[in-house]
């Protein structure tokens, strides 16, 4: 009797049937996948070698702007608020007005003090002219007294000669002698008057200098009063956007109190990127920068300048590494990036977060993308 061959289950027959074709397909796909992986790795490595390793990026970057925080330079009450929050303003546009009545009165008082000082100078000038005239009169009086003295001396001499010859009387001699002594006294008095008139001139000159100094002081007081009066109007220092208004109508403000701020327009903004010190080896001024704004959009800029010190050195309490235990921390250096003109920067605001990527290659115009770098490499080959 023939032995029966055990039956093979149908499921095993179906499973073992297509196994060989499937394994053959895998063997054919594996080399292709390996080739693609090798090609992708080569392209990626080439991109990193030619482009990627030259890109220095950081997300520690922010939009910056020179915001002017305006404060009151004088004391007073807020009389008018001329702008609303977030309003566009022009350079020199009035923003806030303070009550000017007290400062107007001080300005008028300073002007009156100046007028009084100028009038005092005019009075002293007239007195000095009068004193010079008195000096001239005294000099003329001396000449007259001396001439009278010469005549009296001559009369006394003639009377003495006649009396000694028996032709004149003793009375005539005494009279001429008295006239001579009187003329001598007149000369002495005229000389004393001249000295007195001359002595008054230095006093008037000193008083005039003092009056001029008071006039200059009055000028300075008037200029200060006019400046304070002008400061009752707080104006925008440049064209921008008004914001952060703290002033309220009728509020009494003191000198130095912050009232309002003016932010620059979007075309005057810049980016401050804080790069690690290890990233600064190849960063130079003028290099192109790609800016990815978190609020949306990609902008282009250029490295404008590097800070002269790390950010820690400009902090309120700079680190002192010579004291206590030392732990080395990678420092960051602020890099200012100028935003190129002609771009849509309407959405930019100071303080927005930015990701900055600096292209430090020698040829910043070379392709930066993966495909562009691969095409450039293929072209060079």
Automatic annotation (TrEMBL):
Domain Multidrug resistance protein MdtA-like barrel-sandwich hybrid: 69-261
Region called Disordered, residue ranges: 1-22
Keyword field contains Transmembrane: yes
Entry superkingdom: Bacteria
Coiled coil: 100-148
TM spans (from-to): 29-49
Chain ranges of the p-hydroxybenzoic acid efflux pump subunit AaeA-like beta-barrel domain: 269-354
Record has Transmembrane as a keyword: yes
GO biological process terms, semicolon-separated: transmembrane transport
Keywords from the UniProt entry: Coiled coil, Membrane, Transmembrane, Transmembrane helix
Gene3D superfamilies the record matches: 2.40.30.170, 2.40.50.100, Helix hairpin bin
Name of the molecule in the record: Membrane fusion protein (Multidrug efflux system)
Organism: Muricoccus pecuniae
